[in-house]
Amino acid sequence: MKKIFLILTLIVMTFGLSGCIKINNNGGENTNNGGGTQVGDELTQDELTKIAKCLTEKGTKMYGAVWCTHCTAQKKAFGDAFQYVNYTECDPGTDVEGAKKCLADEIKAYPTWQFSDGSRRTGEIPPTELAELEGCL
């Protein structure tokens, strides 16, 4: 059992680390504004809460890992409203069941957003852009 857990941990961490590296070097696909200002700063907490709740109602999911800096920035963009986002933790040291789900769902980079139509995007995405993509504005 320990051997299986160790293998699962190594696989998830390998994919996760390469995912964060991929996000940093993806030729401009990352929507992080790079200027040190968090995405979402222009919205009130009430607006962020409405967006987060709408995303969850639509079936939007975020996959991430506790050690991923892009995931941390994405969570901060929502502030306290992040509690309403449908989030799956992929780090097996933090959430074994979540890590199994990430493997089963073939998550290869963090953060990964999966939308109601089944499409996916990786990287930090401003809450307003997420809302536009899912018709929450």
What's the gist of this structure?
With 137 residues, the protein is α+β, with helices and mostly antiparallel strands. It contains five helices and four strands, in the order ααβαβαββα.
Task: Give me the CATH fold name.
Answer: Glutaredoxin
Distance between the termini: 47 Å
Q: What is the general shape?
A: globular
* Proportion in β-strands: 5-15%
Number of domains: 1
Quickly name the level 1 CATH class.
Alpha Beta
Q: What sequence of helices (H) and strands (E) makes up the elements?
A: HHEHEHEEH
Considering DSSP H and I runs of 4 or more, what fraction of the residues is helical?
Answer: 40-55%
- What's the overall average pLDDT, rounded? 81
User: Could you say which structural class the secondary elements and strand pairing correspond to?
Assistant: alpha+beta
Rg for CA atoms: 15 Å
Number of strands: 4
| Strand order, sheet with most strands | 2-1-3-4
Largest sheet at a glance? 4 strands, mixed
CATH architectural category:
3-Layer(aba) Sandwich
The count of helical stretches stands at: 5
Task: Find the CATH superfamily.
Answer: Glutaredoxin
Low-confidence stretches: 12-18, 21-40
Descriptive account of the structure:
By secondary structure, this protein is an alpha+beta fold. It has a single domain, classed as Glutaredoxin, CATH 3.40.30.10. Helix 3 links the parallel strand 1 and strand 2.
Q: Topology, pairings included?
A:
Blueprint: H1 2-24, H2 45-58, E1 61-64, H3 69-78, E2 87-89, H4 96-104, E3 112-114, E4 120-122, H5 127-134
Parallel strand pairs: 1-2
Antiparallel strand pairs: 1-3, 3-4
Helix pairs in contact: 2-5
